[in-house]
Amino acid sequence: MTEALTRTDHRRTRELIERRRAEASALLSTDAARAALALHGTPLLLLDPEKVRRQYRRLTDALPFVRFHYAVKALAHDAVIAALDDAGCGFDVATGDELGVLVRRGVDPARVIHTHPVKKPAEIAAALDAGVRTFVIDNEVELEKFAGAPSDVRLLVRLAYRSPHAKSDLSSKFGVGAFEAAALVATALGRGIRVAGFSFHVGSQLDDPARFATAVAETLSLMDELEYRFATRFEVLDIGGGFPAAYETPTASIDDIAALLRPLLAPRVGSLDIIAEPGRVLVADAMTLVTSVVGIAERGDGRWYYLDDGVYGSYSNVVAEDVHPLVLAEKELRSGPSDAATHRWATLGGPTCDSSDVVAREVLLPDLAVGDLVVSPTMGAYTAVTATRFNGRALTPIAVMARGLTTGEVTAVGASDPRAVSIV
Ligand SMILES: Cc1ncc(COP(=O)(O)O)c(C=O)c1O
Known about the structure:
Blueprint: H1 2-28, H2 31-40, E1 44-47, H3 49-62, E2 67-71, H4 78-87, E3 90-93, H5 96-105, E4 112-114, H6 121-130, E5 134-137, H7 140-144, E6 154-159, H8 178-191, E7 195-200, H9 209-230, E8 236-238, H10 254-265, E9 273-276, H11 280-283, E10 287-299, E11 302-307, H12 316-320, E12 328-329, E13 343-349, E14 358-366, E15 373-376, E16 398-400, E17 420-423
Parallel strand pairs: 1-16, 2-3, 2-9, 3-4, 4-5, 5-6, 6-7, 7-8, 8-9, 11-13, 16-17
Antiparallel strand pairs: 1-10, 10-11, 10-15, 12-15, 13-14
Bound molecules: pyridoxal-5'-phosphate (PLP).
């Protein structure tokens, strides 16, 4: 059984890599990508907003009664925000700066939720002024900041569900257990502050969909219990983010997860406003990084290729999240890996002088020369937004692949991200 499972896992992994290779090949052979590379060189991030729209449709098809709010932190780019805004998606912000990006675009603040559990009072005041009404708290000090807030403010108490194997177990920093949640509701009622419901985040890049279902079931049962105990009614359930992206191995799909959540959530549809804050799953597939080899060396541990982007840049997810993006040689994207005997295990170093700037080790690659392109798909989430300018390196530009424009046409886009250099 285990062996059979392992064989299936290997097959699915191979299929995923082949699909990623085919997608990258198709992308790089478009006139738009070629024009963008000719214009900007490497490193370059190619952003396809159509893929964001597609993922949003998948979410809404799978969970039609959930109102989704894109977690802007995953990729705060105008083209992503525009695509989701036009599609009717709401937004989730963690800061006043993120809210500012949305306000400047004209997004109705009623469609924005502010889910950072700890905020400066001035930031709360500005968000309230802008018209945001849904906020998250997880402690009494934060609760107190909402004393005297407008009566239509909806406060959600953030619950913690441990997810030790998620890429980012957010419950290690935020959220409370059932006992403290009950105490917060009691304090809020005593202070005349309205708690409208509960939120949680099962951990980013969740590895186990069953945890998602358990978190939903436990939250619903806590809500039932507290409604009875305090003779109150809650109206919002926020199921957070966490939907994973398939980097180098397959992960649970939106449909897999939705199949577990639907039976739990559907009976509550009339009585609860069910919302979610997905980030990664909406944007991860939408951006592809193209780098090139700038140096080659033989070291004690074999061949090293030095790339022009690294972990202090777009590959920041490697260090911050322990993500392992695929790194594919452009020269064999179309043909697939040629004879493995001609390949060698190599280390891929980033461009800075720091020895921790290593993108990947033990990657099987064909012989590469200086100038050869190396491509990483699935680079849309928590990459450009967490990149730094260490060693004085410029942030990697983002070129937006827009369909329907004249091929090669280059147009300036909005100014919220200085790297949003062109629509090609
Ligand atoms: C409060 C909150 N909501 C939503 C998200 C988005 O999560 P994900 O990208 O895993 O969907 C995060 C990620 O850190 C978060 O902290």
